[in-house]
Amino acid sequence: MLSSPIFLRMPPDLQMTDEQFFEFCQVNQDLRIERNKFGEISIMPPTGSETGNRSGSIFGELYIWANQDGTGICFDSSTGFKLSTGAERSPDASWMKLERWNALTSEQQQRFAPICPDFVVELRSSSDNLQPLKDKMEEYMKEPGIQLGWLIDRKHRKVYIYRPGMPEECLDNPATVSGEQVLPGFVLNMSKIW
C-alpha cells in the first residue's frame, strides 16, 4: 500500500482534458487524485483509519452546523473543485454559500465544480509533509470567493488559519477553533481531532 503521494508528470501531448481527467478519477475511485496548475497529477493513497476517523469528525461537525445554519452546503474529502489556475483540488472538508453554489449550472455541479469553496480544511496525516499542504492552502487563498481555511496538523497539535491577503496564523494546541464571521457559530472542538 502507498504511504505517500505519487506525482506523475505528463508530456504536453498526453495532457488530459478536463473531461478525461474527471473520467480518470471516476475509474480510480479508491485513490484520491488531484492535479496542480502545471498538469502534474498527484495520486494519494486512502487515509489510515485514525486519520479517516478524524477527517470524518471534522466533516460531521461541519455538516451538522451547515444543516442548522442553512446558508450554504458542505462537501467531504472526495469532492473535487477546479480552481481558476486550472488545478483540481479536493479539500478534506469544505463549505460554500448557497448563492455561489446555485449560480453554477447543473452540469458544473455534477463534475468538478469550477469554483473554490468559501471555507476549506486540510488535515495533515502522519505521512504528509507539512510544506506541500501549506502551499496548497496558499493556493486556495488566491482564489476568488475563498474566505477562510484551516490546516490542522495533528502531529504537532497546531492549527494554521488562512485568510485571503493576510499572513497565516498558527494556533498552538487550541481547545477549539472558530469559524469566525465566515461560519458564524461553528466551533470545532479539537479534543475530538487530536
Description:
- By secondary structure, this protein is α+β, with helices and mostly antiparallel strands.
- It contains 5 helices and 13 strands.
- A 6-stranded mixed sheet has the order 4-7-8-9-10-11, sandwiched between helices.
- A hairpin with a 6-residue loop joins strand 10 (158-162) and strand 11 (169-172).
- The longest helix is centred in the first third of the chain and has 21 residues, at 49-69.
- It is globular.
Notable characteristics:
6-stranded mixed β-sheet; 13 strands; alpha+beta; 194 residues; 3-stranded antiparallel β-sheet; globular; 5 helices
Please describe the topology of this protein.
Elements: E1 6-8, H1 18-27, E2 32-35, E3 41-44, H2 49-69, E4 72-75, E5 81-82, E6 88-89, E7 93-97, H3 98-102, H4 106-110, E8 119-124, H5 130-141, E9 148-153, E10 158-162, E11 169-172, E12 176-178, E13 187-189
Parallel strand pairs: 8-9
Antiparallel strand pairs: 1-3, 2-3, 4-7, 5-6, 7-8, 9-10, 10-11, 12-13
